[in-house]
Design goal:
Blueprint (H helix, E strand, L loop, with lengths): L1 H18 L9 H4 L10 H7 L2 H10 L1 H20 L5 H22 L30 H12 L45 H18 L15 H6 L7 H14 L10 H4 L4 H16 L25 H8 L3 H15 L18 H14 L1 H9 L3 H15 L6
InterPro entries: Hid-1/Ecm30 (IPR026705)
Protein name: Protein HID1
């Protein structure tokens, strides 16, 4: 009953965004807080309760309300980071903001008039397009990206915290050393943290919001296709203090994943695998960021996100990938990719008893990217005795896709 009332109140708030004859004041906290406070609305319900036609209606009829909603949701996430997101209520508020922004952002990107909305300075009052902008303030997009990256290494929310005696010893999220909280052992990190399904799910939701931010390129006209994606530029630049631990976490999470596990038949039907969705979105983030290879000699010099020295910021993800050189790290990556690519070929006497993955296309693109950017890895694969283990699944997928034009 309570859950039904929550959905009804959330739905009424969405309707009010378009039904009001005047823009809703950004200082009306009682109204804006009902979008993300004191309720737990699953992401499926958010997509059902916020239909596409109503988002477009708010955007076209009451644009100030949509702008304020984006400002307020981002501001709430930034505030949670400032408070180190320690309480359960604050963590739920963050998830509600993440789900709402994941739903709304594509409809902001599809309208060319909103192209620079997220890259404008924050209003001095924290919301509403009519307020004056603060000189030199951080663009909304950077505030959102920084908050997401901080939250991806938030103790007791997305990573297992190291308990310290006394409340005054608790670490501040703004100054935390995220290299100590890398998600999985592997390249550059030897310690394997304990698994937690809830944390896997939260990481997945935050990464899906990141992927939604990066999708801006899909909504550009053909004439603007050569412009750099400013979201990816900031995320992969030195301005993101979590760039190295994020790259390492994404890479290690993918390469350490074993869908079969100890090999108990039908275990995937008995237990929910929270790691598979996380691995898929990690793969997608890696591919999108590694594909964003814009050098200073490229056509994007005259546009978009350019630093003071008139050069596009280096893509640190490509830089980190190209600098991996230890044989142990190469073996870990090759073994992980081979294990996942071979998954459809795993046979057993019991039909459908083994879990099947469906991300082989992403894996093949990712493997290509590694070979392309790290020639030492390519030579390692070619001289390795395991080269046939990777060649067989590649040939299998080639043969399996030959009759399908979309592949």
């Amino acid at each position: 009953m309570g859950n039904t009332d929550t959905k009804l109140n959330f739905r009424k708030a969405i309707v009010q965004l378009t039904s009001k004859s005047q823009p809703i004041d950004a200082s009306d906290d009682a109204f804006w807080e009902q979008f993300w406070c004191e309720h737990n609305t699953p992401v499926q319900d958010v997509f059902a309760l916020v239909p596409a036609n109503e988002i477009r209606k708010v955007r076209d009829v009451m644009p100030t309300n949509l702008a304020t909603l984006c400002y307020k949701a981002t501001e709430r996430m930034v505030r949670a980071v400032d408070n180190s997101c320690r309480t359960q209520g604050e963590q739920q508020t963050v998830l509600n903001c993440v789900r709402l922004l994941t739903r709304i952002l594509p409809y902001v990107f599809e309208d060319v008039q909103w192209k620079d909305f997220f890259w404008s300075s924050l209003p001095s009052g924290g919301g509403g397009s009519s307020e004056k902008e603060e000189p030199g303030s951080v663009p909304l997009a950077q505030s959102l990206l920084n908050a997401i990256c901080d939250l991806l290494f938030c103790p007791d929310f997305t990573v297992v915290g190291y308990r310290k005696s006394g409340p005054e010893k608790a670490e501040e999220l703004n100054s935390i050393d995220s290299c100590e909280y890398i998600w999985e052992a592997g390249v550059g990190f030897a310690q394997s943290p304990p698994r937690n399904g809830s944390m896997d799910a939260r990481r997945t939701e935050l990464l899906k919001l990141l992927l939604t931010c990066f999708s801006e390129t899909m909504y550009r006209p053909p004439t603007a296709s050569d412009e750099p994606n400013r979201w990816i530029v900031h995320f992969t630049s030195a301005d993101n203090r979590h760039a190295l631990p994020l790259f390492t976490s994404l890479l290690n999470t993918v390469c350490a994943y074993d869908p079969v596990g100890i090999g108990v038949p039908y275990n995937h039907l008995l237990f929910t695998d929270t790691l598979e969705p996380l691995v898929e979105v990690c793969l997608q983030i890696l591919i999108v960021t590694l594909d964003h290879d814009i050098t200073s000699n490229g056509p994007a010099q005259s546009s978009a996100y350019i630093h003071d020295d008139s050069t596009i910021a280096d893509n640190l993800f490509i830089n980190y990938l190209s600098r991996i050189h230890r044989d142990d790290d190469f073996q870990f990556i090759l073994k992980g990719v081979t294990r996942l690519l071979n998954n459809p070929l795993v046979q057993s006497y019991l039909p459908n008893s083994t879990k099947r993955l469906h991300c082989h296309q992403e894996l093949l693109v990712f493997f290509w990217k590694i070979c392309d950017y790290n020639k030492k890895f390519l030579y390692f694969v070619l001289k390795s005795s395991d080269v046939l283990d990777i060649l067989v699944p590649i040939l299998y997928h080639l043969n399996d896709s030959r009759a399908d034009q979309c592949k």
